[in-house]
From TrEMBL:
Residue sites binding Mg(2+) per the record: 43, 154, 156, 311
MF term (GO), any: metal ion binding
Location relative to the cell: Cell membrane
Record membrane topology: Lipid-anchor; GPI-anchor
UniProt subunit comment: Homodimer.
Record flagged with keyword Protein biosynthesis: no
Gene assigned in the entry: ALPL
A Pfam family hit: Alk_phosphatase
Name of protein: Alkaline phosphatase
């Protein structure tokens, strides 16, 4: 069913003309100095995931879906980032995190070290450490924060503070004894020691902070993993209790704090990763949006501004498991957090960047009709095996299944359920990453510098340049930190669109 207005050429012409007028306002570049920096990282959020999440968002709001805008779609600048690692054509989350946080391409499986470091070889760590934009911001006097739906010592967040030749060394319990003896530090320990004054740390990962004989506060049968006997949570509490510091482990305690009276917050809401948003215990575990709101409000206490890394980390996990519904709902929730952060900040003085570390072998197609459920069937059956198929498919993964030597008939299963594993062409226990470029959306001061097709490690250099931190300070003359109102583009005309259908 085509919308009545879509049949009229004037509808499309008028929409395009409004978009053109919006684009013309971008000729006045926002060259302000960025007081605040926010990086939203959708782990595994390739372009097909962005498109499918857009459609899902619209369908959740009662629309066809294709015509709506994600919050990230509203950003005025879009670039493509090349994601390869120095030793991998198809990247992993550790080497890519080093690129977009430390500004240096690196080997897969390593965080916060250059390509001279070799994965798993402890003795290649020293002398090959590289620092992150989070540290550059902290050294410049800004507040800094990390929010993730994974473990706080997972690949993405760990590159912000750790220097480790193996992303899996979450605690010393996961390290080879020889690496511990050689003096290498686990990632949880580095979170406490490398940059000891990170203002906001939120996510999962309690078990890596606790001794192996210590029970988890929420799940007594779950124990800590640390062999060195250290309780890093207690150490953090002792260190910050006289500095307006608070530790929380559940949603109620998180939402009960007054952000204006907090300078340090650690929130560890699960022993491992946080649950998928579709499975979240809404009374115990906060959403990504709720965590981001508290984080921004705390970080804004610093008149010098802040740097915040936000990871929608379980988009990646949903795809690895072949569970597209989980992955796409994670992406929609991250987009909601992007919109909320936008309400709490201004593009006048805040550079916000949204990107992914890598893609997945996820896609959707099959000549589906307009408004078709993103999790639905293609409108025809295969002309080879005469069986129906879903629009969403994976190139490989756990969704590959044969019954009596042939493909499963998906009409006999509930392909709309949360944990349905979409069919895959090649059988694997875990679906793999994809190697194509990923999108980089940007808004705020100097956002126009994120343009074209760039190496992924270019991203933190632009963000640092915009904020006058790190190595790019020559353009920041004293007295030039005041925002020049003439450089700010006028509000986009798109905000005044009143056609109800467009507001889906």
């Amino acid at each position: 069913q085509i919308q009545k207005e879509e049949k009229n050429p004037s509808f499309w012409n008028a929409w395009a003309q409004r978009t053109l007028k919006d684009a013309l306002t971008l000729q006045v570049l926002n060259r302000n100095i960025a007081k605040n920096l926010i990086l939203f990282l959708g782990d595994g959020m390739g372009v097909p995931t962005v498109t499918a999440a857009r459609i899902l968002k619209g369908q959740l709001n009662g629309c066809y879906g294709e015509e709506v805008q994600l919050e990230m779609d509203k950003f005025p600048y879009v670039a493509l980032a090349k994601t390869y690692n120095t030793d991998a054509q198809v990247a992993d989350s550790a080497g890519t995190a080093t690129a977009y946080l430390c500004g240096v391409k690196a080997n897969e499986g390593t965080v916060g070290v250059s390509a001279a470091a070799v994965r798993g070889q402890c003795n290649t760590t020293q002398g090959n450490e590289v620092t992150s934009i989070l540290k550059w911001a902290k050294d410049a006097g800004k507040s800094v924060g990390i929010v993730t739906t994974t473990r706080v010592n997972h690949a993405t967040p760990s590159a912000a503070y750790a220097h480790c030749v193996d992303r899996d060394w979450y605690s010393d319990g996961e390290m080879p004894p020889e690496a511990v003896q050689a003096g290498c530090k686990d990632i949880a320990r580095q979170l406490m020691e490398n940059i000891p004054n990170i203002n906001v740390i939120m996510g999962g990962g309690r078990k890596y902070m606790l001794p192996e004989n210590t029970s988890d506060v929420e799940y007594p049968s779950t124990r800590g993993t640390r062999k060195d006997g250290r309780n890093l949570i207690e150490e953090w509490v002792d260190r910050t209790k006289d500095k307006r510091g608070y530790y929380v482990w559940n949603k109620k305690d998180l939402l009960s704090i007054n952000p204006s009276s907090v300078d340090y917050l650690m929130g560890l809401f699960e022993p491992g990763d946080l649950p998928y948003d579709l499975e979240r215990n809404t009374s115990m575990d906060p959403s990504l949006t709720e965590m981001v709101e508290v984080a921004v409000k705390i970080l804004k206490n610093n008149p010098e501004g802040f740097y915040l890394l936000v990871e929608g980390g379980r988009i990646d996990h949903g795809h690895h498991e072949g569970k597209a519904k989980q992955a796409l709902h994670e992406a929609v929730e991250m987009d909601r957090a992007i919109g909320h952060a936008g309400l709490l900040t201004s593009p006048h003085d805040t550079l916000t960047v949204v990107t992914a570390d890598h893609s997945h072998v996820f896609d959707f197609g099959g000549y589906t009709r307009r408004g078709n459920s993103i999790f639905g069937l293609a409108p025809m059956v295969s002309d080879v095996d005469q069986k129906p198929f879903t629009a969403i498919l994976y190139g490989n993964g756990p969704g590959f299944k044969l019954v009596n030597g042939s493909r499963v008939n998906v009409s006999t299963v509930d392909y709309q359920q949360n944990n349905y594993q979409a069919q895959a062409a090649v059988p694997l226990r875990m679906e793999t990453h994809g190697g194509e470029d990923v999108a980089v959306f940007s808004r705020g001061p100097m956002a126009h510098l994120l343009h074209g097709v760039q190496e992924q490690n270019y991203i933190p250099h632009v963000m640092a340049y915009a904020a006058c931190i790190g190595q790019n300070k020559d353009h920041c003359q004293k007295g030039n930190s005041a925002v020049r109102s003439s450089a700010l583009a006028p509000p986009t005309l798109g905000l005044v669109i009143t056609v109800t259908w467009l507001l889906c």
